[in-house]
């Protein structure tokens, strides 16, 4: 059985992927949120609700649209290559300002269940670096998320 997202992943993993916009960017970035949420071995309802809120706010989706996007993102995340290649591909295809927003969204998911797990922290440090976001900017993003509550 062929991977549902094989063509998408193939395009994402090209040496010089075209910049992603619209539905592709939404899907890739939401899949990254799912990957971080799952990194501690739990995929809590609070994390799922946070991903849904992020998708609704960021992309202006209604409930059905959010559920569809998250469902496809969960499948993509399960089929995507290792985090390093997946995240580097996103870095090459997504503008810097959008990547800062992604880091804020990732911190929001990590903090959604009220527990800062060491696996989530480690993954977020790695993902920030792979997205070309330095530790200082990631820490500032985390502080903005914590302050927003």
Describe the model.
This protein is mostly helical and 149 residues long. It has a single domain (21-148), classed as TerB-like. The chain has eight helices and no strands. It has helices at 6-12, 22-38, 45-59, 63-79, 83-93, 96-111, 118-130, 135-148. α2 (22-38) runs antiparallel to α5 and α6 (96-111) packs antiparallel against α7 (118-130). It is globular, with a radius of gyration of 14 Å. The mean pLDDT is 84.
Describe the SSE topology.
Blueprint: H1 6-12, H2 22-38, H3 45-59, H4 63-79, H5 83-93, H6 96-111, H7 118-130, H8 135-148
Helix pairs in contact: 2-3, 2-4, 2-5, 2-6, 3-4, 3-6, 6-7, 6-8
Pfam family, one: TerB
Protein name: Tellurite resistance protein
InterPro entries: DjlA_N (IPR007791), TerB-like (IPR029024)
CATH domain fold name? TerB-like
Q: How many distinct helices?
A: 8
- Principal-axes shape call: globular
Q: What fraction, in percent, of the residue positions are helical? A: over 70%
Distance between the termini: 43 Å
Order of helices and strands: HHHHHHHH
Estimate nothing, just give the exact number of structural domains. 1
Query: Low-confidence spans: pLDDT under 50, at least 5 residues?
Result: none
CATH top level assignment: Mainly Alpha
Number of strands: 0
**Main sheet makeup:** none
Task: Write down the Rg.
Answer: 14 Å
CATH superfamily label:
TerB-like
Overall pLDDT = 84
Shape-level CATH architecture: Orthogonal Bundle
Q: What portion of the residues fall into strands of 2 or more residues?
A: under 5%
Overall structural class, as computed from helix and strand content, comes to: mainly alpha
Protein name: Tellurite resistance protein
Organism: Thalassovita gelatinovora (Thalassobius gelatinovorus)
Domain Co-chaperone DjlA N-terminal: 26-143
InterPro entries: DjlA_N, TerB-like
């Amino acid at each position: 059985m062929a991977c549902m997202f094989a063509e998408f992943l193939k395009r994402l993993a090209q040496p010089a992927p075209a910049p992603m916009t619209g539905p592709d960017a939404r899907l890739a970035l939401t899949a990254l949120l799912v990957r971080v949420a799952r990194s501690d071995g739990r995929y809590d309802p609070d994390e799922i609700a946070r991903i849904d809120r992020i998708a609704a706010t960021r992309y202006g989706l209604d409930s059905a649209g959010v559920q569809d996007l998250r469902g496809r993102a969960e499948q993509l995340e399960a089929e995507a290559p290792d985090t390093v290649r997946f995240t580097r591909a996103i870095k090459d295809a997504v503008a810097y300002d959008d990547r800062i927003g992604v880091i804020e969204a990732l911190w929001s998911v990590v903090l959604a269940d009220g527990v800062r797990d060491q696996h989530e922290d480690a993954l977020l440090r790695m993902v920030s670096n792979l997205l070309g976001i330095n530790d200082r900017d990631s820490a500032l993003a985390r502080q903005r998320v914590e302050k927003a509550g």
